[in-house]
Amino acid sequence: MTALVWYRNDLRVHDHQALAAAVSSGLPVRALYLLCPGQWEAHQVAPLRRWYVLSSLRELGQALAALGIVLDVIDCGDFAGVPQALADYCRRHQVSQLFCTREYPLNELRRDRAVADVLGGLGIALQGFDDSVLVPPRALKTGQGTPYTVFTPYRRRWQHYLDEHPPAPPARPRKREAVAFRDDNSLRKALAALDVPASLQAHWQPGEAAARRRLQGFVREGLAGYKAQRDFPAQAGTSLLSVALSAGTLSVQRCYLMAREAMAREADTEEGALVWIGELAWRDFYRQIMANFPHLAWGAPFREETKWLQWQRDEQCFQAWCEGRTGYPLVDAAMRQLNQTGWMHNRLRMVTAMFLTKHLFIDWRWGEAYFMRQLLDGDFAANNGGWQWSASTGTDAAPYFRVFSPIRQSERFDPDGVFIKQYVPELHGLTGKALHQPWLAPMLAPDYPSPIVQHEGVRERVTAAFQQARDIG
Length: 473
Ligand code: FAD
Description:
The protein is of the alpha/beta class. The protein is 51% helix and 7% strand. It has helices spanning 17-24, 37-42, 47-66, 82-92, 106-121, 151-164, 185-193, 198-201, 208-221, 226-229, 242-247, 252-265, 270-292, 315-323, 329-341, 346-359, 364-374, 380-391, 406-413, 418-423, 432-436, 458-472; strands spanning 2-7, 29-35, 70-75, 95-101, 125-129. The relative contact order is 0.11. It holds the Pfam family FAD_binding_7.
């Protein structure tokens, strides 16, 4: 008999409950990753993210081999192929127990139900762990017994829960006799089939070891200043750990515990650590929204009445936004950052998403899909939550009458244009007011586009559109 760890978005050996449980079963342990390229296509997963996952898998295979565990990688097409592939594998290796980390989006839930049915028929016990979140998505309910849909009260209860149930991630399993690492054929083929420019790869280091180093570096050097610096894209003020958290090369429990330990050790870290822990709470918040409101996976807005909004279907404006040619420096620099590195600063995700949905009044689902196709850290719950927040269609959304001014945001968060000039070289000759409004000095930036839309009047247009949607509904 064998215990099997089925790896998904949890590509690590440290702080891994499913792996620890499999090892403590006392049975020989194997590990499996099922490649689903068809699902990646359907979910529009960015090539860069696929590269990160596949490269991290290779490192995981080596780490598991050193613990005496073989990692097999099998291509099963898409989620529909998973139950059969697992059943075949379990028969072949006499698996009697299967361990995994739970996932919450709708397609993943359906996949796992189908797997439970098939494996149940074979008498295989299946055990899942809520290891990708700090607080399990159905653990907290409001006084009315409903899921939380507003962040601030959720955050309070979330912290209370964690104070009562502090995370206690298991240690990495002890070494057994190492097995040889086989560089899996399916993995090699999948990596070779990817077309990701080296210039894009150069920004990132896949794998658990790099993620753990980044966390240590951030806690040491970035946590204390996080509150003051996190909104300024020209500064390295945030952790850049989103890809590690979404692919599970790092556990969110480790992040939380290291931030708490730093707070306890150094008083001047407290302010920054509390704000950073608040971001981990946002991550859990959107995951519990996704788990409790699965219809969001069909592209539905959370606020029912906003389904009547008459979005513009302007392909040309959308293309200009995608390529960073809107004529608004901060928006354009942000979109070019996304295209050139696969990542975008959080403040700029809000600015660009609001610009698309409020200034251009283009459907948030277009932007959500574009982000997924580019982002290294593309994560359905966080991306959908962020887009619906920005478009004022979501749970705890920005009110529809709040419209970020791309000029004001630029002046506040990149006052000297250090970030803007890094990505928009056409603006090198500009300073002061003209840097944020280049149309004031068109002769100094002849290659830079004029604004595709005026900021003036946007609030009124958006307010009227939301009013109209309410009237229709
Ligand atoms: P830090 O500031 O260091 O934060 C630490 C961690 O907290 C992050 O790594 C992330 O896991 C989590 N986090 C931070 N902010 C948020 C947030 N607002 N919502 C949920 N989790 C958060 N995040 C993703 O991981 N994947 C996405 O696809 C994604 N799409 C987004 C789309 C839009 C329109 C918006 C407004 C936000 C989106 N975010 C997404 C949230 C946020 O922008 C990123 O998590 C953050 O920029 C990652 O950088 P960091 O790791 O340096 O974050």
